[in-house]
Amino acid sequence: MNIPSDLDISRSTALEPLEDVAAQLSIGPHLLEPYGRNVAKISLEALDELPAEPTARYVVVSAITPTPLGEGKTTTTVGLGQALRHLGKRSAIAIRQPSMGPTFGIKGGAAGGGYSQVVPMEALNLHLTGDMHAVTAAHNMLAAMLDNHLHKGNALGIDPHRITWRRVLDVNDRDLRNIVTGLGGRVDGTPRQTGFDITAASEVMAVLALSTSLQDMRQRLGRIVVGYTRDGEPVTAEQLRAGGAMAVIMREAIKPNLMQTTENTPVLVHAGPFGNIAHGNSSVVADRIASRCADYLVTEAGFGADMGAERFFNIKCRTSGLRPDAAVLVATVRALKAHSGRYKVVAGKPLPAAMLAENPDDVRAGAANLRKQIDNIRLHGVSPVVAINAFPTDYHSEHEAIREIAEAEGARVAVSNHYVDGGKGAVELAEAVVAAAEEPSGFQLLYPDSADLRSKIETVATKVYGADGVSYLPAAARSLDAYEANGYGNLPVCIAKTHLSLSSDPTLLGAPTGWTLPVREVRASVGAGFIYPICGEMRTMPGLGSHPAAESIDIDEHGQITGLS
Amino acid sequence: MNIPSDLDISRSTALEPLEDVAAQLSIGPHLLEPYGRNVAKISLEALDELPAEPTARYVVVSAITPTPLGEGKTTTTVGLGQALRHLGKRSAIAIRQPSMGPTFGIKGGAAGGGYSQVVPMEALNLHLTGDMHAVTAAHNMLAAMLDNHLHKGNALGIDPHRITWRRVLDVNDRDLRNIVTGLGGRVDGTPRQTGFDITAASEVMAVLALSTSLQDMRQRLGRIVVGYTRDGEPVTAEQLRAGGAMAVIMREAIKPNLMQTTENTPVLVHAGPFGNIAHGNSSVVADRIASRCADYLVTEAGFGADMGAERFFNIKCRTSGLRPDAAVLVATVRALKAHSGRYKVVAGKPLPAAMLAENPDDVRAGAANLRKQIDNIRLHGVSPVVAINAFPTDYHSEHEAIREIAEAEGARVAVSNHYVDGGKGAVELAEAVVAAAEEPSGFQLLYPDSADLRSKIETVATKVYGADGVSYLPAAARSLDAYEANGYGNLPVCIAKTHLSLSSDPTLLGAPTGWTLPVREVRASVGAGFIYPICGEMRTMPGLGSHPAAESIDIDEHGQITGLS
């Protein structure tokens, strides 16, 4: 089966004027602020104009524990949104904005794929409307004001060794991970060790994603904790008088970006927080708008259901107050085969040839992961739908094996061919989703705000990850005590662990049991509104490979981009 | 005289739809790409559609040597553009995009002022269409690819001690001036000393400003020299295979941004290179477009006529092939009084009270600077027009003193009240400019491409600055020899010296004589296309003051910005 490249499909799409795309959701042209011809921001006045109560069924797309190659969650999200329109539903899709660093690093673009893409893919993958850059600018202005505060006498008594605020850039640059700043002479600042993270890892990005309005964002930015005084008191952006200027820098970024799929379905692209040290979900503001003008709102949560979906439920929905009606679990033949433990899948390399042979037994041998992730959805009172994202190398017997596993768990299941066939290929999936979403939602948070931080961590670890318990390094325990004392104990937790296993050990496939979650350290995103325990090495600044994608990207003699995939 | 704040004037302006603004220049709506409601990019297809030959008289606005407070060159540029329309001319204005760092640092916005502003000033001063951010992203991707090249084995044999490419951010952050990167472990890069400049100081910004087309920009980006091998050979962005991806990142940034003045005059805002280590002029592309659809194109060149105008003539016009018809020299009572040497003007502080008393003798005592800058315009065969930018604290006798000095030199002269009265206040100036521009232009470059680098430097130093000669530190002499050997001897020179004196010593006012220009070192912007000898300390990353402007900037309960000035 030969289908054109994503870039070629994107270019050959007949784009509708965005006014027409918005009109599908009864969003009038007066609420659109065009950015170039094919992207528009939606004015926050939409929140005042639209009905106060949600009209949409709210569907989150998650996955089983993925291989390092990913299992096509974005393309399934897009395909489902397209298919719902084939069923006569007014559908809207909400996804994260991709980071530019990886676009020029290893993976090329991140706009879905095949005939279920967000278009134009160049706009999505490059700058979009500048929201990422605004996050970078706001984040680094706070860093400059913080170091300037030290330089100008440190009236707040900030302990230079307890500064937690680093700087950010949207680039894959390993050399910026660990740096010493403030060298030179007396007028050049205060020497200290620090570093850069990629912009997606910025707390400002998480703030953007979790804010419910411009005013709420202003308050959250002010609450950001940048470090601690010598007495251990937290120091905030507000104390540095930076919160207002940061909000001003972010005042356009808070407006969601409207684009369309290859079938002209409306897509809101907004915010792109990391999926490990942050919650990995697109914005609350986009969902607040789309949920009030669509019949169905389909959104994607990062990584597997233990990661993105758990945070979707317990962080994002806790903040927004929106109640999900169904959850899609993307499963692939290759991922289930990988969970059998019989193969080794490596990022950036082709699959082992043996994995491509017809072998439903391999699929069945990986069933435990799918079962556990179905449970993880049910834990939150939401109906799961298993979406088998079909690949040309799959066999019918292998799809059937997945179907049997899902049905044995009582979950709805459908094969989806959206990559090759667009929305038409996902109609069976859309029907299953509609059936699931029309059941009354029993959505419930996994833990109340009032539980202490250790119980929150332990609840997620034992109920979602399947751990026997949690262990804390002394520094982690001290941080938890300090955060409770600082009044942050009411925040939800965002556990930073590998996405390649239900456990904290990326080599443990399937549904590992008999293990303990080791919490190495704990940090706080007080502005965004969560505490994040760290279990394992979390890389917050990627590096480039020997041959970065950037080397192959160029413009041709007509000014067209080449090499973006 | 009480006039509202710049922000209030900007907000109270009746904005015209940009289609109507563009229509003044016969630029059709199909050539506009809207970015929000009040800014649009102009498609480069305009270059194909418009007449091949310039239709416009081309006017550059420069100044006498300014005080640290600046003498209102942008507001005069805007006022003149407005006034030309009062005379029935189709006028266009072209200016640089302000840098966000200083907006949140000391000076607030940079959009002109009073009733001669570019509006909306918030859009101009914050992000605009993201061109600055694109420069940051392209610049830093090259830096990451360079460090990654070292990390992955350094096949090109780059000498880590001879890397000249730093990183950039659009923020005032003194702590980033001198840093050590690549610390941490083996996978975290190669430890070395480097630093960040502000984005306006990036060579990528100078490339953006000097490129004549997208393809030309692509080639210039590839020619950027990032350092030298152990054998002393230059290493380019092309050799690192970064030029294509950089051009892709910059492919929207190359399109000029259309805005309007408080009187709806079209303004092209495009590129913002530094005025000392770079040429300090807005883009060639904007001028190529506007010169072919207006009767008058008014553009601003940074700092005094020895700096911005000299580079306008010898770098920008050399590149674009456009021929200027007149040059405006902005003069103020306060600047001429300062050149008397009788007062000390300090940035960020009020003028000495004694300077505000009526004193035409002080003005006459500062005449030498104005005379020399008039000469500097004439050196290039262009007609000078002295614009007396009126302040409410001026006296008629003081304006008359300036008029007498200018007329004694045979220059046209006019008092301009655009700040208070908008275009109406600059009609006398506009009439003088029209008279000057309608004379046949005798424009000539000061030196040919073929002159060697030392003669180019010496020509500018002796003819424009009034130096007796030039001295070179040994390192500077070695660099000049190396650049000639590398084949860069045909490039023009951009002499980086203080803008506060015609000389290289900022404390020497008036028109200093009997001094020698000391060239400390010489660097090359091979991609942008100039060699820059450095004479004195050039700060390429500003710091913040004790109370940065950011501390007072916020959003109010209606989401309106407050504190931006």
Automatic annotation (TrEMBL), chains A, B:
<feature type="binding site">
    <location>
        <begin position="67"/>
        <end position="74"/>
    </location>
    <ligand>
        <name>ATP</name>
    </ligand>
</feature>
<dbReference type="Pfam" id="PF01268">
    <property type="entry name" value="FTHFS"/>
</dbReference>
<dbReference type="InterPro" id="IPR027417">
    <property type="entry name" value="P-loop_NTPase"/>
</dbReference>
<keyword id="KW-0436">Ligase</keyword>
<dbReference type="GO" id="GO:0035999">
    <property type="term" value="P:tetrahydrofolate interconversion"/>
</dbReference>
<keyword id="KW-0554">One-carbon metabolism</keyword>
<keyword id="KW-0067">ATP-binding</keyword>
<comment type="similarity">
    <text>Belongs to the formate--tetrahydrofolate ligase family.</text>
</comment>
<protein>
    <recommendedName>
        <fullName>Formate--tetrahydrofolate ligase</fullName>
        <ecNumber>6.3.4.3</ecNumber>
    </recommendedName>
</protein>
<comment type="pathway">
    <text>One-carbon metabolism; tetrahydrofolate interconversion.</text>
</comment>
<dbReference type="GO" id="GO:0004329">
    <property type="term" value="F:formate-tetrahydrofolate ligase activity"/>
</dbReference>
<dbReference type="InterPro" id="IPR020628">
    <property type="entry name" value="Formate_THF_ligase_CS"/>
</dbReference>
<dbReference type="GO" id="GO:0005524">
    <property type="term" value="F:ATP binding"/>
</dbReference>
<keyword id="KW-0547">Nucleotide-binding</keyword>
<dbReference type="InterPro" id="IPR000559">
    <property type="entry name" value="Formate_THF_ligase"/>
</dbReference>
